[in-house]
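During the no-cost extension, the postdoctoral fellow (Dr. R.K.) reprocessed legacy sequence entries with the updated structure-token encoder. One reprocessed record is reproduced below for audit purposes.
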Amino acid sequence: MTELTDELARAIAGLDEDKVAAEVRARLAAGTEPLAVVAALQEGMTRVGSLFESGEYFLSELIMAGEIMKEAMTQLEPHLLGKSADYKGNIVIGTVKGDIHDLGKNIVVMLLRGAGYNVVDLGVDVPPEKFVAAVKEHRAPLVGLSVLLTACQGALKETVTALREAGLDAKVVVGGNYIDEKVRQFAGADYIGTMASDGVKVAEAVFGA
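Re-encoded structure tokens follow.
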């Protein structure tokens, strides 16, 4: 496992709550781009996930890391929201049926709203029909499907299929730490995202921003 070189990434991977809070404050005060701070935090969270998968961290450490991340994002939120006053369109997003993880989704929602998009957040454990109804109601050109559990790949595919069978031409982006091109092809999605900032990049591509 390669050594983390970023101090903030190391702090969150090491579950050092005080160090993370101090580092975020210092970087913001120094004028560091908020998205760069988010990227460092996500790098550390990815390491936490790896440590959990290898058995070095347990559920308690995973939960603690999530809480530290939430506190850090609370500091970052004022710097991420309201960056653009322009209304760019509707985006529907949610965590697929069977999965209740929302940390990554919530960060993506925050970044998209900060970039000027109206995000309709459906929450977690969202069935395909709810995605379909929301896309129809808001006429959203883009749908974001979040997933953390590999066991929920079937739900990804079911949701994309439901959107297509409903005759909706909205583009679909699937996001999560383990998502890759094979998962995209299996699900029938248009885009993938492995970092929160990818959501903004996909939105810019879809909306032509």
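The chain has a mean pLDDT of 89. Residues 91 and 119 are 5 Å apart (CA to CA). The remaining legacy entries will be reprocessed before the final report is submitted.
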